[in-house]
């Protein structure tokens, strides 16, 4: 299948919105932000109750893997909260890929507000068939998206495909083990309760055979780690070239 260049995907999302993004008056900006929250409600969550999660998770990722330069793909990146948090503490170029056009617009709006449009871009695409070429990214991150992939293995294999040799993917969902427990534990308990009560539309539990199947498909270095109460992550490494 032919894969679109990342720039084309960015332009397809940005071009219809450029007149709005170019407005400088506050009423127009506020109206556009309100439209985003109506079409993509998680934007409010990401900038509200989940706001403390992303800086902690970004710091944990940098501390664990030490990758601060190159390209990062944020799979199912939504409104770009994790990408923006990582951009604050690294020199990387970020592409937050999402299948929802309104999430992509929210990401590009958030990047504009943060003054980071030169380093953080929302792009439209499917986690199971990404638009990026092979060995494109130094780092792949994905928080909360894998639970909504129809085929979790296909998404994991795509994350591995786009990794450069020596690259790392951190894929799953949780609230960061270094986040203040007073903040993390209530969020995790609410998440666990929502999952148990099946209140999250389209949510699919982690496939316990996923690691085994990924290894059988050729990913040798993959393991899972769990967070307290709720949350788990896959850590995937591509061997460095000799």
**Neighbour order of strands in the largest sheet:** 3-2-1-4-5-7-6
CATH domain class: Alpha Beta
The total number of structural domains is 1
Cα-to-Cα separation, first versus last residue: 30 Å
Low confidence ranges: 4-23
Short description:
This protein is of the alpha/beta class and 242 residues long.
Topology diagram in text:
Layout: H1 6-14, H2 18-21, H3 26-39, H4 42-46, H5 53-65, E1 71-75, H6 81-89, E2 93-98, H7 101-113, E3 120-124, E4 137-143, H8 152-162, E5 163-173, H9 181-196, H10 210-216, E6 221-226, E7 232-237
Helix pairs in contact: 3-7, 5-6
Can you describe what's shown?
With 242 residues, the protein is of the alpha/beta class. The chain has one domain (6-237): Vaccinia Virus protein VP39 (Rossmann fold, 3-Layer(aba) Sandwich). The protein contains 10 helices and 7 strands. The protein has helices spanning 6-14, 18-21, 26-39, 42-46, 53-65, 81-89, 101-113, 152-162, 181-196, 210-216; strands at residues 71-75, 93-98, 120-124, 137-143, 163-173, 221-226, 232-237. It has a 7-stranded mixed beta sheet, with helices on both faces. Helix 7 links the parallel strand 2 and strand 3 (120-124). Helix 3 runs antiparallel to helix 7 (101-113) and helix 5 packs across helix 6. The radius of gyration is 17 Å and the shape is globular. It starts with 5 loop residues before the first helix and ends in a 5-residue tail after the last strand. 38% of the residues are buried. The model is unreliable at 4-23 (pLDDT under 50).
């Amino acid at each position: 299948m032919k894969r679109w260049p990342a720039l084309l995907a960015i332009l397809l999302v940005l071009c219809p919105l450029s007149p709005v993004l170019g407005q400088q008056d506050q009423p127009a900006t506020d109206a556009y932000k309100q439209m985003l929250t109506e079409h993509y409600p998680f934007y409010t969550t990401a900038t509200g109750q989940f706001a403390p999660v992303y800086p902690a998770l970004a710091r944990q990722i940098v501390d664990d893997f030490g990758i601060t330069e190159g390209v990062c793909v944020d799979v199912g990146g939504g409104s770009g909260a994790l990408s923006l948090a990582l951009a604050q503490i690294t020199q990387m170029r970020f592409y937050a890929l999402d299948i929802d056009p309104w999430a992509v617009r929210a990401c590009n709006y958030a990047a504009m507000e943060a003054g980071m449009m030169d380093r953080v871009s929302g792009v439209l695409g499917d986690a199971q068939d990404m638009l990026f070429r092979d060995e494109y990214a130094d780092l792949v991150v994905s928080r909360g998206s894998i639970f909504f992939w129809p085929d979790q293995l296909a998404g994991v294999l795509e994350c591995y495909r786009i990794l450069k040799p020596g690259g790392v993917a951190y894929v799953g969902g949780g609230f960061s083990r270094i986040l203040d427990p007073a903040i993390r534990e209530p969020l995790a308990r609410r998440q666990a309760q929502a999952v148990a009560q099946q209140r999250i539309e389209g949510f699919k539990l982690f496939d316990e055979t996923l690691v085994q199947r990924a290894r059988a498909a050729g990913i040798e270095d993959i393991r899972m780690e769990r967070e307290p109460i709720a949350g788990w992550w896959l850590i995937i490494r591509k061997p460095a070239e000799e």
